[in-house]
Amino acid sequence: MKLKSLFLSISLALSVGVVTNVQADETCMSPYMVKIQGQEDFVYVWTLGIKGLGDEQDKLVTVAVNPKSKNYGKVINSLSVGGRNEAHHSGFTDDRHYLWAGGLDTNKIFIFDVHTDPAKPVLYKTITDFVAKSGGVVGPHTTYALPGRMLITGLSNHKNHGGNTALVEYTNAGEYIKTYWMPTDKDLQGAIKSGKYADGFGYDVRALPSKNVLFTSSFTGWNNYMMDFGKMLNDSKAMQQFGNTVVVWNLHTRQPKKVLDVTGAPLEIRCAIKPEHEYCFTTTALTSKIWLIHQDKAGEWQAKDVANIGDPSKIPLPVDISIQSDDQMLWVNTFMDGKTRGFDISDPFKPKQVYEKVIGKQVNMVSSSWDGKRLYYTSSLLSNWDKKANDNEQYLKLFHWDGKKLTPQFSIDFIKEKLGRAHQMRFGAYALYSEKVKK
Asked: What are the residue ranges spanned by the domains of the chain?
């Protein structure tokens, strides 16, 4: 009871703006996380090993990104975890002492200590019984901070490796708490099915504490995400196994409340940052559209298709998205053409593309600094979905944004450095922790 009361108090504090404004940090993170104030010092890149390259293992790569550092734009640490696990997403605990990173194939979760020495993370703990503890969830994806908790989205299940999956809750110490299965036609679990679909698929999760809601999106199961991309595109049955829903949950009880139709595999969910902006965006990979998740005049949550991304008929494959902290710009990456696109979202119901740039032959993740001046990009989507031969560029790139154009600052070739496939980024800073580790 005390824990629940504390959880509610923190949520209410956040919703009324008790948390002070910050000057930096990556946007679109959990509102419960400790924030970086000032320039980020490091970017941690969760990286997939490649057979025949370097030690062939997945690893957490640390890059110095503070311009004052003598190692600016260079790899300063690489920590291998053993094997290739389909390294994918990572997320900090609310106190930012630990970074959780999952493997979509082996279902291992690696917990890194990033506070003892932020320049040299160490592997603190590995969770190897995720499937057994969760009751059959496969593919730990988003690791999302709640007060004293980590909420993990699954992508699949151990029975048929399809898309039916769940949310799984752990303590910050890595102790299993509970599994919350996604609502389906056969078991809505009290949720209201508002449209055609209740597919039970999962992918990302984000919270709006002021509204006491969680949102989850949907993608595809192990059978698809571990399949060769070209083979999958030519498999009609496989192409039918993608999610078409966003689920609205009660944040505090984890009870699913409503299932919204969002057709075409909605991926990342990103919520507006200013307290007065109570809405979120997602993009659909297969239909190349921006969707707005919002409340109507009656207070009911709805999903609305509000813009196209490029030419949907060419399936540019939207992947990661990021909202700048002033809620004026949404950055959208498209994997197939290697582009990032900037959309003016000052009117969230009418996003307008105002900028685009080719980042590489392929591009996946984007991380925006709080001040809107820096955008980091990485290249890898999935090991079997990345492009082949010379098109298989693997990198971390930093660009500066002046409000009109992106200007390159540095680029690290992860193939040349024998590191692997650069997937996802998280920011680190000395200022968050003890002064004794400063170099």
From this structure: 24-437
